[in-house]
Amino acid sequence: MPLSRFVKKSLCNLSVNARCQTVAIMMKQVTGCHPGGLLLVCLTLAVVFMIGVWQDPATHKLITPSPVSVHPLYPSRVPLLDLPGFTYIINNDVCSADVFIIVIIHTHPANRMERDLMRQHIPEEDLRDLGMRRVFLLARAEWEDQELYHKTSQWSINEENLMHHDIIQGNFKEHYHNLTYKHIMGLQWATHYCPHTKFIIKMDDDIAVDLYQFRDKLRTRFWGRKNLILGLMQIEAKPVRNKASKWYVSEKEYPEKYYAPFMSGWAYAMTMDAASAIVAESIKWPYFWIDDVHVTGTLAEKVGVKREGLNRFYTLHVDHLHCCVELPNNADYFCDFLVGPSEGDPDVLGKVWDHARSCYINPCQRRPPEISVSKTCVRAKLPPLAPLGKGHGEIVKVYGPFL
Ligand SMILES: *[C@@H]1O[C@H](CO)[C@@H](O)[C@H](O)[C@H]1NC(C)=O
């Protein structure tokens, strides 16, 4: 049957029309498109629904509905590296023209507590006042090989999203070998849904990041910059060749002796143009699962994105963070660090964020160098990770919080 007759027939079909109208109204609300556009959308949808009920004359079998979707938040066939059929399970359009920094947070579906902690201590209203928005990046939880995690149902994630509207969830499996998918998904999402934003801040959900000070630093020192990533720069880091390690990387996966200089995934800032370039480049190279190495190292190097270390604003010691909020007169001073690890302790996250927020509400002073946290903090244990010892104390050879 020729297509035109089919379209006519189904356009006369009441139920298709009703659906079409509903969708058309939705589309109008979402896109504000004009009636001519609506007709086109209607026709497209009619075709889509029709294909869904199309019977193959040869086999008399129903052909499976085509997954073609024109919904702006749920488009089908978004390219994401080598993943066939990538789509969002949950998506939100959170950016408007007044957003300058979008914060994207890697989190496991089971980590509801961490997400709520951050929502509670860094309220969304603050972020709005500061021209920022926040979304959490999730994949799909499959529990059979993840006994360590509390089993969170998809239902409860949907509920969580209905409450907060801040979840972006991809349809690939949540797994630490899949974090590069998540990382590129986040950057791609940001370039697509927040195109007017100047910076992306990518962070992990267990890292204490003072977003108030981080934003100030970006505004005062890096605002007009392009093609740039800022963070805890890792230089001359080597792949782990010990097969017993969770982070073992074979010669086949990564033949070079050193990784390209990359930014720790704890927290970094990236300009929007750099994110676009990296996303475009990402489909040209084989998958490599250590996401911060691949995205902020290998791919950034390929497209010539500049990387600058803010290493002196990062601490590797949770005790430094404790000191920030415990040293005498701490309420008068900013913490010396923008970013530090929580080592799985939610209390320290809450305290650091509350302190950061109080310095936002009642501006604090810089700590004078003679009473800097690293000088006066007596809690600090010996570093868990030996610095490179090359005379530049800022540069440390670490990968993430795990090594
Ligand atoms: C990564 O996600 C894909 C798509 O869902 C899945 O097939 C694959 O098994 C996942 N990888 C791991 C290591 O679980």
Automatic annotation (TrEMBL):
Q: State the Gene Ontology BP annotations.
A: protein O-linked glycosylation
Major location category of this protein: Golgi
Residue ranges of coiled coil: none
Query: Has the keyword Glycoprotein been applied to this entry?
Result: yes
Q: Which GO terms describe its cellular component?
A: Golgi membrane
Pfam families for the chain = Galactosyl_T (PF01762)
Q: Where found in the cell?
A: Golgi apparatus membrane
What are the transmembrane regions?
36-54
Give EC number(s), comma-separated: 2.4.1.-
- Topology versus the membrane: Single-pass type II membrane protein
Q: Which GO terms describe its molecular function?
A: hexosyltransferase activity
Q: Which UniProt keywords apply?
A: Glycoprotein, Glycosyltransferase, Golgi apparatus, Membrane, Signal-anchor, Transferase, Transmembrane, Transmembrane helix
Q: Report the sequence similarity comment from the record.
A: Belongs to the glycosyltransferase 31 family.
What is the protein name for this chain? Hexosyltransferase
What is the organism of origin for this protein?
A: Cherax quadricarinatus
